[in-house]
Amino acid sequence: MKIRTSFVANSSSSSFVVSKSVLTPEQIEKIKNYYAIAKELNNSITAWIEKYKGPDTFVSEDTPWFGYLCDSWRITETDDKIEGFCVINNFNFHSYLDFIGVDTRKVTFKED
């Protein structure tokens, strides 16, 4: 448990590291451009739900939804890996990586 004695903030941090050797060039671009891609997808899903919602509307658990969309993830690329870091983790990058076809068993995740 974290105990703070002064300023209290509702924040957490997350990070991931993935070797570029397990990624396709398309996946690398989708990681680097995650915000635009996820925003478009979230907007499409929201529009669909708004248009068709009713008492019988069912949204599958498999529907990709990445939570609160924020652009605070810092994505860096080296010759051999892609890293992501975020201080306030509201965007589910694990789900996003899974959605774009990354084998998340080969990704190192860390959350504080």
Verbal overview:
The chain is of the alpha+beta class and 112 residues long. The chain has one domain. The chain is 30% helix and 19% strand. It has 3 helices and 4 strands. The protein has a 4-stranded antiparallel beta sheet with strand order 2-3-1-4, covered by helices on one side.
Describe the secondary-structure layout.
Elements: E1 14-19, H1 25-32, H2 34-52, E2 74-77, E3 81-86, H3 93-99, E4 107-111
Antiparallel strand pairs: 1-3, 1-4, 2-3
Listing every helix as H and every strand as E from the N terminus to the C terminus, the arrangement reads: EHHEEHE
Q: Helicity range of the residues?
A: 25-40%
Shape: globular
Instruction: Report the major sheet.
Output: 4 strands, antiparallel
> Which strand-content bin applies to the residues?
15-25%
Question: Gap between N and C termini, in Å?
Answer: 11 Å
**Overall number of strands:** 4
Oligomeric status of the shown chains? Answer: single chain
Q: Please list the strands of the largest sheet in the order they lie side by side.
A: 2-3-1-4
Query: In DSSP terms, counting alpha (H) and pi (I) runs of 4 or more, how many helices?
Result: 3
State Rg: 16 Å
Overall pLDDT metric: 76
